[in-house]
TrEMBL record:
Keyword Transcription regulation tagged: yes
Top-level division of the source organism's lineage: Bacteria
UniProt-listed SUPFAM superfamilies: Homeodomain-like, Tetracyclin repressor-like, C-terminal domain
One Pfam family per UniProt: TetR_N
Record-given protein name: TetR family transcriptional regulator
HTH tetR-type domain residues: 13-73
């Protein structure tokens, strides 16, 4: 992925930031395939030459959009866990941060699930970027749940991720507050189950 910086300040160029922010907004709200590169150029108020100076093409721009979404998600989960006193508190905080997104203005579901629906070919770079993000998220949830109780955490982590996926899909179709409450109840059920599970015997 191409990243152009200002030679004097070392900061990402203002034009690149404007292009990426514009693409992020339109791709997320309207879909990726429905948005042409000319639309992004026009709304970002840059020239075609400027776009190609920062990105090799639309696919590169889409990958940058997903990379930015991945970084935001990682930061969101890190912030949610900061200052929590226990693993249980950390899982609950992460769950609440997810429901905060579901109830935010302009919520349109999961950027990664939306993207992979448009790029079903498992060999495509966009599809691969989604899989890498999903692997990170599942690993993160597995590590968190493994700190609660002694039972293996893999199945519970997959359960929580599936609950999250369902909440992200339903959150833009039904009452987001109701969806958020349902999701939190499901996560709490997983937490309580792990707290009450008997210690495995060797």
């Amino acid at each position: 992925m191409t990243r152009t910086t200002n030679a004097t300040s070392g900061k990402t160029s203002e034009a690149r930031t404007r292009l990426l922010n514009t693409a992020t907004r339109i791709f997320y709200t309207e879909g990726i395939h429905s948005v042409g590169i000319d639309r992004v150029i026009a709304e970002a108020q840059v020239t075609r030459a400027t776009l190609y100076r920062h990105f090799s093409g639309k696919e590169d721009l889409v990958l940058a959009y997903l990379d930015q979404a991945d970084r935001m998600m990682r930061g969101q989960l890190a912030d949610a866990q900061a200052g929590t006193g226990s693993a249980v508190d950390a899982v609950r905080a992460v769950a609440k941060s997810i429901t905060g997104g579901i109830q935010s203005q302009g919520f349109r579901g999961c950027a990664f699930l939306n993207a992979v629906a448009e790029y079903p070919d498992p060999t495509h770079p966009v599809h691969q970027a989604v899989l890498r993000h999903r692997e990170w998220f599942l690993d993160t949830i597995t590590d968190l749940l493994a700190r609660i109780g002694d039972a293996p955490a893999d199945a519970d982590a997959r359960h929580l991720v599936m609950l999250r996926d369902g909440a992200m899909a339903a959150g833009c179709l039904f009452d987001p507050a109701l969806i958020a409450d349902t999701f939190l109840r499901g996560v709490e059920g997983i937490v309580q189950s792990r707290m009450q599970a008997p210690t495995p015997v060797d």
